[in-house]
Amino acid sequence: MATTTKRASIPERTLRTDRWWVPQLATAIGLLLFVGYSTWRAFDAADYYAAPYVSPFYSPCLAARCVPMKGGADWALIGGWWKLSPALLVLIFPLGFRLTCYYYRKAYYRAFWSSPPACAVAEPHARYSGETRFPLVLQNLHRYFFYLAVPVAGILTYDAVLGLRNPAGQWGHAGLGTLVLLANVALIWAYTLSCHSCRHIVGGRLKHFSKHPVRYRAWQFVGRLNRHHMLLAWCSLASVGLADLYVYLVASGAFADPRFF
């Protein structure tokens, strides 16, 4: 029986009869909404601190123009010459981590570039070079952005712990903002640790798991998180936006933070 390396000649773009384009449309809308909101907040440079809460978009605040944060660390490293929003100094790290993330690459390749539009749907591009050319070759920096995302998650954890104070700086208090920041940092850690690069760092380059039981258990844990990487990517994206929105509303005086004790 003769074989051929050519693709089957099917005139239709796809034989799928379902609404395969709906997930791609929903993905595009969701990403555009977040990009629009985060861009506005990043350049706004206002209402990002409501004692004791600081927006995750602005932490760590590295510019000299950052508002004084009572009880918080003085992260200011950049002098007064920096005229742009302090958020632009730190968002590059989590943004780079998410842009190069394996799931997000799949999401925006399909949603915006139709490469491919969906499974079993022909893509409109005549040529395909993968991620071997500029700028897509920069996607290979993902593992390095992971190293930068981990300390950022650690700093956001510190900020969430500081939420256990009242506006006067006294410990042993909690408000709705405390829960918002704690939930956000929990989702950010879950998303970060579920990263494929993290899974490789924990369990990669080993020939015998039996000789490395601790790394094996860690690899199993990260593997279980990795199975939910897509869900964690969306949940953490929503949580970081909602956390910033909450701090913005409290800082701008839209409402007072409800204190539980």
TrEMBL record:
<feature type="transmembrane region" description="Helical">
    <location>
        <begin position="170"/>
        <end position="191"/>
    </location>
</feature>
<feature type="transmembrane region" description="Helical">
    <location>
        <begin position="231"/>
        <end position="251"/>
    </location>
</feature>
<protein>
    <recommendedName>
        <fullName>Integral membrane protein</fullName>
    </recommendedName>
</protein>
<feature type="transmembrane region" description="Helical">
    <location>
        <begin position="144"/>
        <end position="164"/>
    </location>
</feature>
<keyword id="KW-0472">Membrane</keyword>
<keyword id="KW-1133">Transmembrane helix</keyword>
<feature type="transmembrane region" description="Helical">
    <location>
        <begin position="20"/>
        <end position="40"/>
    </location>
</feature>
<keyword id="KW-0812">Transmembrane</keyword>
<feature type="transmembrane region" description="Helical">
    <location>
        <begin position="84"/>
        <end position="104"/>
    </location>
</feature>
